[in-house]
Amino acid sequence: MSATAARTAWPAIISRAGEIVESYDTSVTLRQLFYRLVAEQLIPNTQAAYKRLSELTAEARRRGEFPDLIDRGRQIHRHPWWTDPADAMDALISQYRIDRTSGQDTSLYLGVEKAGLVIQLEHWFADLGVPVLALGGYSSQTYVDEVAADVRRQGRPAVLLYAGEHDPSGEDIDRDFEKRSACWDKVVRVALTASQVEEYQLPPNPGKATDSRAAGFIARHGALVQVELDALDPDDLRGLFTQAIEPFWDTSRYDVALARETGDIEALEFAARSIS
In whole numbers, what is the pLDDT of the chain averaged over residues? Predict the structure, then answer.
């Protein structure tokens, strides 16, 4: 696609972009949206096209003509408050949950390289009560120690299901995290793998020759490329995690935990009626 064609097609591209966002049951990141449009061959896989998409979707959102995108890095921080005890009790009832992983033989953790995808994992798997980790690249030792301590508190074999980029550093991040945390009985790389890049026909970017791990990556895969996790369709990412969870998840024990939680909520609702 020529630069001129890309410019003249932008109104239709933004219209299609809105349709793509609304087709999912959760919001998507700008990067995911960009790769959906690249996959449909509506825009080129260039930084200039990504920047223009960012500008035009922002303008459309300001006009109220485009759905929200995920922005994990910015939020309003405010301490929760309630109008009275009855309001507080209602809030407790709506939020009350037990540990829904209780009774499971394994402590499952879902991990992603980018924090922007945490919202999607939480949306898809929050009902299970499984914790989600965002490594954000090479994690600080403080975060590594925090995760390791959490795993130890569970008192069960721990399994990390992880998704990261397909590039020299992306392949190394989970290895580094596994080594420094030293708390996992098993680490499963859910995505991205070289075979998945080919299977899902994900668009590659040039890899960074300055990466100290570039030579090893080339030796393993034959070329130096960078394929972002955002390039994978969110529905495919969800399916890969769902498939990875199944061998470690006991549905019957999960049902027992839900039944206990329901009984607790009924007791809270009875107590609420006495103070309302």
Answer: 91
Q: What predicted TM-score, i.e. pTM, was given to this entire model?
A: 0.85
Dihedral sign of CA atoms 71, 187, 224, 42 in order: negative
CA dihedral 95→99→100→101, nearest 10 degrees, is 150
Q: For residue 224, what pLDDT is reported?
A: 92
Confirm if 178 and 160 have CB atoms less than 8 A apart: yes
* 50-90 pLDDT tens trace: 999 999 999 999 999 999 998 766 667 788 889 988 888 88
42's CB contacts (< 8 A; 6+ apart) are: 9, 13, 16
pLDDT single digits (tens) 242-261: 999 999 999 999 999 999 99
Three-class secondary structure of residue 129 per DSSP:
coil
Distance CA 148, CA 180 (A): 9
To which residue do tokens 């420094």 refer? 180
Rounded CA-CA distance 65/236 in Å is: 27
Q: Give the C-alpha separation, 133 to 124, whole Å.
A: 14
HSE-up of residue 30 (Cα within 13 Å, Cβ side)? 16
Whether 161 shows a pLDDT value over 50: the answer reads: yes
Within 8 A by CB and 6+ apart from 275, the residues are 85, 86, 89
Q: What is the DSSP letter of 166?
A: B
Omega of the bond leading into 160 within 30 degrees of 0 (cis) = no
